[in-house]
Amino acid sequence: LLHYRDYMLRELCYDQDLFILQVALVVIDPSVVIVTILDRFGLVGHFGGDTPQFVYEGAQLSSMVEELLYVIITILTEAANPSKMDINQAIRREIIHALAMGPCSYTDLIKRVAERLVEDVSFERMLVDVANFKSPETATESGVYELKDEMYEEVNPFFYHYTRNKREEVENVLRNRLKKKTGVSDPVIVPKPFVVTSGPFAGITAAFESKALLQVMFYAIHNILSVTTLSGSAPPSAEAILDQAVHLVMVALVERPAVFSQMSASETFQDDQTLIDLLCTFEHHESYKAYQPRINWILSQMTIHVPDVVKSRRK
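RESULT FIELD:
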């Protein structure tokens, strides 16, 4: 899996497989695609509340859930292939996301970008467009490139070429920048909308109207909260999984706010709970206070469309 995602191979392997899944979302019922992915990951039971069907345990289960959510987020938000992004824009985006973690030398930078893009004639020009060069201060230092301030607006912390550690690193950078800009102590990074608005791939976001996807979001959160409450401690990768699940809910509210809010208020799962019921419990969970700002944003957005339901459930 590590080589499969390696920057030298990912364009020919991982990226193409993700695009095939995006094609499937367009030509097949999204619910069928989501359930098929769950089945291939061996996680149908985990996201159906059927504990005896679990085929993984402990850290292995958490790792598979995290990987599954990563794939789902990517196929619903990644727009390079669906938008027919040209080579210049692809290079620009890769450089921006490579430098979002902090300044680095040219040697380090080209290790983070696919060789095909580095060798393109427009690479140097794109680099100058998005970054400033900081000259070395001593003879033993190397000069570094740092991202221009305005370029941070284009950074997506869930960029699909990031590892979990890189994503968390970039989220911290963006959050600290938002703190300085807004004065808010714990700002919320709101996902950007899917940029494809015409053609067949514009229909990818219709997946957010799928009950199967809603069920994935529900159980991703529910299973973590249940284990934490029962055992008194968080399961492996709890925060990573919750980060992904919450992000998916936020993307759904950016793409399909009215329909998704209605579904979250009416579709029931474990113990006849809706997603809104679960989110209201999550908002005040003692072990996950760091999520309160994001849950507050989610519930505030849902209040616009289903105000009576949210107000009746919220403590």
